[in-house]
Amino acid sequence: MLLLKWLFHFKTIKVTSVLERNWEISKRVFGENLFKIKHWEILNKDYSESPNIKATWFIDPPYKGDAGLGYRHSSKLLDYGKLAEWILDRQGEIICCEGKEGDYLPFKPLIELTGIAGKVSKEVIYYRTDKNLQLDLFE
Hints:
This protein has 139 residues and is α/β, with parallel strands linked by helices. It is built from 2 helices and 6 strands; from the N terminus they run βαββαβββ.
């Protein structure tokens, strides 16, 4: 099952020959792999309306704080306490990503990435197995 919610508000860009070629390649790759996801159901709803089924839940919300302000539905609009309750109530395996300001779950450091102009981005993760045990992969 795929829960899809459009979060970014993209700016328009100039389409170059390289972008055009990459899009043609991507369309071919997508087409060749559709059989892998044909059984997925797409729900265009708020996350809180998704059914609580046993699954692997990969949760990547708008990051708390400044890192989440660039989304159309920014981090300012998200109740992270409510999100944490929803996450902890899920059946199955949970993988939740966040930025350095994430404090609503017991996140562990994952990686530090250096981006444009040397800006360092710190990523953290919360992981719980499907047996409701927290696995300390990052200690």
